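Running co-folding for NAP.
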Amino acid sequence: MPSVVRVAIVGAGPAGIYSAEALTKGAVESGRQIEIDIIDRVPSPFGLVRYGVAPDHLSIRSVRDTLDRVLAEPNVRFLGNIEVTGDASVGVESASLGRIGRVSIERLRANYDAIIFCYGAATDRNLGIPGENCVGSLSATQFVNWYTGHPDTAPDAWDSMLGSARSIAVLGVGNVAVDVVRVLAKDRTELEHTDMPEHVLGALGESVVTDIHLIGRRGPAEASWTTKELRELGELANAEVVVDPSVLNLGESSRRLVESSKVVARNVEVIRQWVQQPPRQTKKRIHLHFFRRPTQVVVVDGAVAGVELEETALSQDGQVSGLGQLHVMPVDAVIRSVGYRGLPIPGLPFDDSRGVIPHVDGRVMEDGAPVPGMYVAGWIKRGPSGIIGTNKKDAVNTVASVLADLESGTLPTRKSSEDVAELTGSAVVSHEGWQRIDAAERALGTTRSRERTTIHDRVDSISIATQAL
Ligand code: NAP
């Protein structure tokens, strides 16, 4: 093993950055020199902390300051605007202002002693129902990407829908659905202090939506949202929660859940308080529906006209089944929020049923054996669940395997010492480049009396990042 160990981390979200932190700590403790490159296809680091956590959750978003300190470590480099591909014929392709650089896994394996894949779950799960991909039926992932200013999303992608849809169905009752509903239900003044791009604030401010329907296929006790997030729906300036009291007639399995989980008990209590509140006659309404599962998005003349829902019931063990009674809820648009899903990289082992890379203790597994030098952490390892902090423990566990393999001599030795950053060219965004984007976003925010305003456009970000070069 060469005296300097080189590790590539694919993905600069929490799992990737916490992996770099754990490796750096391990290097100090073992007296080894470990150089780390964190590669990401977007120009800015922090993954879902930047492009997932809702912009009005400022305290959760502030975790990026902690993550940023890891990127500033002398043994860590951030290499933004580079995509890792399974296509070996790519080798290395340089980045330019308008083009993402590319590097193949094969080339990474030649130049690093270990690779940790931390690229998360970038897409959304499908419902598998007719009409779900028609115009006006979109995924929460697309909406979240847009309102957080993800460079892959067109700035005007939601203008038409927000400008025309008076009623919107949000399918799924997890925390992402709650974020989506809250952002839709807030007035512009309630979002003004966030770092949302200016055109996003403009389009949300012009939204004509008055009725948002949040629809769960199981009951209020089975919803996967957390209490703090749920409660926020009842604290909006111009939107009130509307819920039928009958949803609180809990069945036996739901009552057992309430008794066994404080979180579930608190969630149900929040809903009970809403049921008891007098109506506020607000401009917007958030309707909660339970025991309804979507069976099709109803399309008339190529546009969403409603969502067909089947009544459901729970079995003794909380499993959902359809009762055969169908109802059409007329709505102008549908947002599907039924979970994220990880995507495969061709050539890497992948468990398609779960959307994850198979592993044992963070070691990538193929045909029952670990693939030497290949590791995995975060959502692409364990699936899309948990809070940001969950990724820290997860990354520490994976890095323990990397360090153990390093000590036992089972890491493969790299065959060459090319510098991927140099090969991919001057449009690669370094940590210094990111700091320029950061400064530009803060300056833009100051002009509007907020901490920052996200720069949405990829080319703008890259030209700011590389302007001094
Ligand atoms: P999630 O918590 O897994 O929720 C997915 C929802 O979709 C569930 O209500 C699920 O219902 C429903 N669903 C799945 N398949 C369905 C189908 N075929 N038909 C109807 N409904 C279906 O996922 P998420 O909301 O995307 O959140 C992902 C992770 O990020 C979670 O760990 C979440 O807590 C976290 N997150 C946290 C925050 C925060 O802390 N503020 C914010 C956003 C996200 P069933 O339960 O019946 O399957």
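Result summary
The CA atoms of residues 59 and 240 lie 24 Å apart.
The chain is about 35% helix and 25% strand.
Job closed.
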